[in-house]
Please model this.
Amino acid sequence: MTLRRFSVVTAAVCLLLAGVVALVVSGVLDRSTSLAIDKFTQLTGATAAMVCYWRAARRRQGTARRWRLWMVASMASLVVGLCAWTWGQVFLGVSLPSTTVAPLGFILVPVLALFAVLVLGHGGTGSLPNHRSRLVIVLDGLIVVGSLFVLTWVSLLESMVRAWATSGPGFATVVAHPAAYLVLLVVLLVSSWSHRSVRQLPMLFVALAALGQSASGWVFASLVSKGATAIPTAADIGFMVCPALFFLSSIAPSSGSRERSSEGRLRAGEMLHILVPYLPMLVTGLFIVVGTATGVRLNPFEVYVGLGVVLLVIARQLFTLIDNVRLLEQLRVSRERLRHQAYHDPLTGVANRALFRERLNAALEDREPLVVLFIDVDGFKDVNDNYGHAEGDEVLRIVAQRLQHCVRPQDTVARLGGDEFGILVDGYPSPPEEIGHRVLEAMSSPHRTAGGEHVIRASIGIAHRAAHGPARTADDLLGSADAAMYTAKRLGKGMVVVHGSVEAELS
Model:
């Protein structure tokens, strides 16, 4: 559905819902008729949401399909709860809070919707796209709700709970139901700051639905604690609005994945994500400190809940620490990969010119003997011209492998460009000529590739510096080795020339 068409549908639903609410709370109808319209409106909205979520899920794949299927289950639970509640209240005359299966249906609605939010956050882009991220989001929600629970328990809920029966269905209907919606709302807010995929229109209406249902739920709890056997229609507005908001969520266009936040907004969102679990805990802690300082004594239940919140904070910090360590390790690996890419030839995998010069400069500072070999692959142009560049690339890879086998692991083999290679032997244990001839011998055997066999030779120029010899620069040594290599080519290729020997005779 396009955004323009969705806006029209939203306006129509809001107008229709406003008319129904006004009719129900106006008092012009008798209570049974108002109750029938109220429940019919909720059932219609929940059923329509379930059908639309199902139709939308069938047309999608992956994460977009999975989170909608969770919402289908959530809406089905709401339909079952509403049917059971209506049957018990209207036809069976069950008194509040309720002993039918309605509490189970109602309590599963936010729980299943919570799974939809976690699936959507895990499948989209975010700061922690893994299984631990979903657990951190849930922990954040529980920390916020637990802190608020301690605060409201000390100030209000304890007296409320003592006023009504403590049966399981009653507790689920009166307290756990709105508290579960509150958890859903908090998790939605927390996850939207760290996951762009949650920051979209359907989730906005889910959040509004959770807000409306939770608000009416707490009003309902307050009325039950005062002995009410029926809820006034005005206090039922949040229950009436909730299914309609779920319906709008089911048809809303998913535009959150295309959102582009500025850097400042992202930083603000990250800061809020960090602070959200701790701000309500701080407020609750200050409230309890002030209360105990003025003579208020905490009962064991309040202490246990407070300790539970502290344990949640510790668990949250532990998972955050684990993720930070993981991210740091990923950053280290990424830096090493980038460094490897910056200092190595992508075709052959050996060092490139930049790394070769860096290691040559470092070796020159040590004042130890060193040898630089400048190698040009003879006949490589013919391979490229006759067999193609792919065959030429394979030959270069074979040359690089053979050069690496000719030297020690601590020596450096580099591709200096095209068909030119360099070797740095730091602290050479044998005369320079021996190293060059070892390379020629390794190059002399045929190079077997997918295109056939190629006989490749090399012209090698060598420059060296003896131990504690005169200071020389990297450019000086490379230039000398390059000049010796060209001398080898002029002498007939496939030769080794040490700078300062044969070259002097030719000059």
DSSP finds 17 helices and seven strands in the chain.
